[in-house]
Amino acid sequence: MEVSPEEWKIQRAFPTTNAPGVEFAGCIYSSPMEFSGPNGLEIVALGAEGNLLGLDPTTGEQKWSLALPAAQGQGVLSIAQPAFIDDTRIVVAYHTVPGDLEKVDANSQRLSHRVAVIDLVAHAVDPDFETIELEATHQSVEEVDISFRPSHALARGDVKIGKLPGDSLGKVYITAGNTRDIQPWHGWAFEIDLDAWQAQGAELATSASLISTPEPDENCGPENSSGSRERKCGGGFWAPSGPLIIDQPDGYELVLAAGNGQLDLARKDYANTLMRTGAGLEFDPACDASLCADFNPDEPSLACIESCENLWIPRLSGQDDKAPEPWDDRCDGLTLFECWQKLDYIGGSTPSYVEVGGYKTLSYPTKDGHLYLIDQTHYGTQFDRIKLVDQCGAADDPCAKDWAGMAVTQPLVAGDAENPILLVPTFMPDKTHPAGIVAVAIKVDASGPRYERLWEFPDFEDPSAIQRFREHPSRMMLTQLGEDSPETAWVVEVAKGDKSGKLIGLNVDDGARVFETALKGPGRRYAVPLRVDDMIYVSSCDADSGPGRVEGFKLTKEATEPAAQD
């Protein structure tokens, strides 16, 4: 008797009554990590309060714990995803906070920004790396000092590592913006040389730093006020997925996404852009000085924008492309950049790098609900711009979170080298417009690369598409269930409040739902699901201040008999 292909199913492994797992007092902002040590496989999770735990992969039970180091009387706030240095060590960027806080979250007062190397075998800080406290000072165009202020910077982006030829361990990149855009705030990036750190100590470990808007504090608006609807300073590097590293034969390029704020080339302010740099964090936009001599921050000239080699400045694509038309008419009579200021758009995401048809491209989703296709070899060239979703809000249904936008993520790259597919999670804080996962192909013709829309989940014509994906979803993860199986993309549809989120697996080819199962908690925005063998792990938080947990799900397969043939 012939047997049909195996049918895959998913079931909860923990938390359950028999396998309760571990509940963290605070949220788990970061994603679960896989670690294979001398005691077998462990799932490592980092709580917001600085507790690093090794969990049993089957039951979720705690096997060991480590508190990140802080000064006497101080607590810890940890948001950024750690990075593996090698098979046994991770580098963690975190904050110290007052020790008497009942709960910590992104809005807690930050006293210092620290970096530590953790030995996952010893369950301890690696003694070869003395813990670092981040510091930096830059100068404005008037040669006024601008110092890094821990109280006004939040490191939430993934920690990334790049290697140059000759590097043993490489260089760590840590990025920061500020929660709620509280003034004065800027985009800060730090480079930590791991080899120098290990050999020469913490004092010589910080090899470079960069600021996106080198403006004195007095230029940034009233102290401790929100600058989210202003273009003063800003430019925070707050993408949860961190900077993009593109490996090159002689090293790597580093792409930084600067969020909302001041864009003025004459003052070296680069908010609302993508900045290409590399080891050493030296940045030169390489724009034509004559074409950009009279730079207009409200309406930059296209000739200036297109001249820039290392700086991408957003723009519309052609006459048929439209500026936002918000439901409350707040952009009437405004330029595109003035409108983005009113709406608190553009940045917040990380681009994805794709080579196709001889072109090197970046795909950059932004809070305005669009996906931009950019030439990685010359940032002034924008190949395409496609609308993923409509703008949140309507006259009878105002947007519940008009600051949130409709996309904060990094596209998942699927398909193959000849036919790349980008999957972009979107969301919609209203009750009117559809949102969900949007799949887009990059096609190359005689005029160059262009986007082609493939599918949505849920289908935007389905009534469920105006009910689902109302909150920021997770990022996506790609797996293949078997050698002959299509690629499956995983995402968590995050719920609000005490409702349960959903873990969803989609067929990359057509967007068909392969799996869907309820979480115990709401899920966690921006985090990434983890697959290890036949298990899927996700972070979940009841609220930004906790409690949080790792949830585990088991994939099973069973052979089924084919239907009888006439």
What is the C-alpha radius of gyration, as a whole number of Å? Answer: 23 Å
Kindly report how far apart the N and C termini lie: 15 Å
Q: In terms of per-residue confidence, which ranges show pLDDT below 50 for 5 or more consecutive residues?
A: 1-5
Helical residues, percent: under 10%
User: Number of helix segments?
Assistant: 3
Overall residue-averaged pLDDT value: 95
Structural class: mainly beta
Backbone shape: globular
InterPro entries: Quinoprotein_ADH-like_sf (IPR011047), WD40/YVTN_repeat-like_dom_sf (IPR015943)
Region (Disordered): 212-231
Protein name: Pyrrolo-quinoline quinone
Q: Would you kindly provide a written description of the structure presented here, covering whatever features stand out?
A:
By secondary structure, the protein is mainly beta. It folds into 3 domains: 1-31 and 473-566, no CATH class; 68-313, no CATH class; 326-334 and 349-470, no CATH class. Helices cover 4% and strands 37% of the residues. The strands form 10 sheets. Strands 7, 8, 9, 10, 11 and 12 form a 6-stranded antiparallel beta sheet that branches. Strands 1, 2, 37, 38 and 39 form a 5-stranded antiparallel beta sheet that branches. Strands 3-4-5-6 form a 4-stranded antiparallel beta sheet, with no helix packed on it. A hairpin with a 2-residue loop joins strand 25 (352-356) and strand 26. The protein starts with 6 loop residues before the first strand and ends in an 8-residue tail after the last strand.
